[in-house]
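Structure representation.

___
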Amino acid sequence: MRIRTAVPIAAVAAVAALALSGCVDNSTPSGSSTSSSASDVKKDDTLAGQLPQKIKDAGKLVVGMDNTYPPNEYKDDNAQPVGWEVDLAKAIGDKLGVKTEFAIAKFDNIIPSVAGGKDDYGMSSFTDTTEREQQVDFVNYYSAGILWASQKGKNIDPDNACGLKVAVQSTTYEDTDEVPTKSKKCTDEGKPAIQALRYDTQDDATNAVILGKADALSADSPVTLYAISKSNGKLEAAGKTFDEAPYGLPVKKDSELTPVLQKAVQALIDDGTYKKILDKWGVADGAVEKAEVNAASKG
């Protein structure tokens, strides 16, 4: 993965900011649609021939997704899945000559659905961790860090946040790992804990900060930058991006689909489709040059 030490706000300049009336508005960005942005992706017959027979017979890939994490994946004005990961999933299907069907579910239900064979793979901003690799394999396709945001002028420091209220989307890495670790450090030092305010959707977490219910939010860097771009100047980055880690597509352990997905993602990287999608959504800063498998366990 590509390591980053900071992500400039300009990284989201390609995403049009929309005016807010006290809350965030995640209408579909200009130039995007529910159809794949990579409609010109050509089928790779060799890769298609390597698909498991079950998928060949079905003619589709069923992709588990929680569409509440803009701009990665969310609902457009017609309640259809949209976002750069939606575009990438559709491009993978195009490359393999099959349809892409999104199985919308809560984030914490997707890995069990993949591990149990209900979904073919997941695409929902999953951070590849060694713990998760015990349940599924990951095809890595992006590098994201953590970035905090606060109301403009609040001067929040993520490394000095003891006693603050921090909004997170439930079951994300920020909820389960990052904020609890920071909070424990506070209490170990005799300082007040960080109060994590957990919300079902990223929009709700963002609005909690805008409305003053939380001091800050913590989310993956592309998500935080997008929230800032949509806040009409109400939010700003709090500190810099940290803890860069790979995103991965969860696939059932030892599945014959894993190497096919890895090759399909690599083909999209090599032919320029991947970068075209990231550029469209203003998230190219986290682009990778190589699609790996289980990068977390490789150090």
In short: Strands lie at 60-65, 74-75, 81-82, 99-104, 121-122, 136-151, 165-169, 195-199, 216-220, 235-252. The domain at 145-243 is CATH 3.40.190.10 (D-Maltodextrin-Binding Protein; domain 2). The chain has nine helices and ten strands.
